[in-house]
Design brief:
Length: about 100
């Protein structure tokens, strides 16, 4: 089913399920859905959700600016260091502009 924020994106996805990606280390002024704790960290794309409204642009009245949306899994040790559980991971839904190849 399509959600109310699902949109068509004219470009092909840049990332594939199973691909290693790095969350960009950006510090924009204003709204972003990129959590600070994943910035600069490497994870694995687990799901591709298709195109969705980019909340960063929409919140600043710059239009919907739809982008591909991915679920990225980050190992807990990548996020919190060597004392974190080696078996656990945290997932974040991240838009394409938040990511770069790792």
């Amino acid at each position: 089913t399509r959600g109310i924020f699902t949109r068509k994106v004219e470009t092909s996805p840049l990332f594939a399920v199973g691909q290693r990606v790095r969350a960009r280390n950006i510090n924009p002024s204003g709204h972003t859905r990129l959590p600070r704790y994943v910035r600069g960290k490497v994870g694995i794309v687990r799901l591709h959700h298709g195109g969705h409204v980019l909340p960063d642009a929409n919140a600043h009245e710059q239009g919907e600016a739809p982008q591909h949306l991915y679920t990225v899994a980050f190992p807990m040790r990548e996020l919190w260091g060597p004392d974190a559980s080696p078996r656990d991971e945290a997932c974040a839904d991240l838009w394409e502009s938040y990511l770069e190849p790792a």
